[in-house]
Amino acid sequence: MNIGIVGLGLIGGTIAKTLNQHYTVSGYDISEATITYALEHKIIDRSYSDLKLFFEDNDIIFLCLYPNAILNFIFQNKHFIPKNRVIIEISGIKKYLISRVEELGDLPFDIIYTHPVAGREKAGIMHSDEKIFANANFVITPVDKNKKQNIDLVSDLAKKMGFQNISIVTPEQHDDIIAYTSQLTHVLSLSLVNAISTDLDTRRFIGDSYRDLTRISIINEKLWPQLFINNKEALIHKITEFESELRKIKDAIIMNDTEKLESLMRKSTQIRLSIDRGKNNES
Amino acid sequence: MNIGIVGLGLIGGTIAKTLNQHYTVSGYDISEATITYALEHKIIDRSYSDLKLFFEDNDIIFLCLYPNAILNFIFQNKHFIPKNRVIIEISGIKKYLISRVEELGDLPFDIIYTHPVAGREKAGIMHSDEKIFANANFVITPVDKNKKQNIDLVSDLAKKMGFQNISIVTPEQHDDIIAYTSQLTHVLSLSLVNAISTDLDTRRFIGDSYRDLTRISIINEKLWPQLFINNKEALIHKITEFESELRKIKDAIIMNDTEKLESLMRKSTQIRLSIDRGKNNES
Predict the structure, then answer these.
(1) Using the beta-carbon criterion (under 8 Å), do B137 and A273 form an inter-chain contact?
(2) What predicted TM-score, i.e. pTM, was given to this entire model?
(3) Do B281 and A198 touch (CB under 8 A)?
(4) Number of domains comprising chain B
(5) How confident is the model over B112-122, as pLDDT tens digits?
(6) CA atoms within 13 A on the CB side of B62
(7) What is the domain extent for residue B199?
(8) Which of A11, B24, B98, B132 has its Cα between 20 and 30 A from that of B18?
(9) Per the CB < 8 Å rule, is A217 touching B271?
(10) Residues A4, A62: contact at Cβ < 8 Å?
(11) From the list A207, A210, A272, which residue is nearest B218 (CB)?
(12) Residues B51-106 pLDDT 10s
């Protein structure tokens, strides 16, 4: 079984690093420098400049591109990808991508929609690192057309990549919870940083809390607008729910309502501790 | 020079641990269990049950209590604290505390207002740890009555406790920047957690970003309402500024305005990187 990876960035590079211990891994990337780096560091075994050959030689092909580039890639290459190939896309949004792919009609190959919930505030193959996947979460959102054996195959590959939890949910469930756990957190972090207003040297007044909350405000501005806009419905809903919780705290402060603040803090403490225990869905 | 510490919680315990390498450190706490723990673990050298003796024997006294308890303590003991004692309070708010203390009139001892910008999402002496102070920030907000030699003494003690940056600013500057770097971050973290709404097991869908942003939602609900309410003016202002930045992102998503989102992300990335370099005040 040969693995091909289109797009050797942070995630594509990490997939290559984790899977080339088990399989022959080939890479395709529009940047020659990236291919050279990947070959020199033995992150991939082979590179291709001819996509047709790449499709011929590899049974399983990961598309590690930004969401819109994944759509473009499938659109431009749908006639060249042989039957029985397993195509795995890894973007952070699902409903939008699936509905756009379905507009292309019947395709002879099987596309598995996945989301490795992992990242780092730096892009590019030079930051790819097995540690990013270690004990992280991996989500698969099957569609009717998927063959069961291919879903099982991808689950197995995710385990080999180091992921701890493989979850299978609907595209709607994925987009709803990721809008909250990932996209909303990034929206808040960058709003917090952009709200800065001081003449002082901030670094002399911060603690771990500010550092933790603002780490992800160092953000890939080419990727994230696509994730936000293409999951607009769910994300706007989550932002509105957040605004309402923020308003509760603001009102309690304005009204000197210590009791209300204590109750909101007890609630957040209890929810956060129960997430650590994996029990937030049992309440 | 003898050091006395009133209140052996997370911060009081850590001050004791860092200073008893240099001085004789005594403790006073209303909890007998805490005193026993502190003596058994050699966190303090001596304990007192008689406050008058405690004041007699110790030249420098740290008040490591919640803000309202600091006020009560000073009010109840102002006639028993001898002249020339240096009293160091360590709360996270300054203007409110200073103005309330000034209502007490002329006091014979010198109160130095400080803020060790350090903490942990767990309270109590058993979690006290020198690591909390290592390379952290320490802020002093002098008032007119303070003797220069006492400010210098406290700066020196902060260095001995392991703090990296000792900053001297006005109470107004302190409250303004801490409302942003510390209080607003806690408000956001707990609002984020309280906005949760899912039937799924959240733990299977989160990455480092959610874990980082929600760590401080495990919060001491007896302390933080006092900090929020007693710094109301600055904090409400910061919340409002944050809401306005959040609204910019929300509007850009609604309008599919990729360019605006990219520009907001470039801004947050640039600010956050410049904070790492200590240059955010030079822009």
Answers:
(1) no
(2) 0.92
(3) yes
(4) 2
(5) 999 999 988 78
(6) 29
(7) 174-282
(8) B98
(9) yes
(10) yes
(11) A272
(12) 999 999 999 999 999 999 999 999 999 999 999 999 999 999 999 999 999 999 99
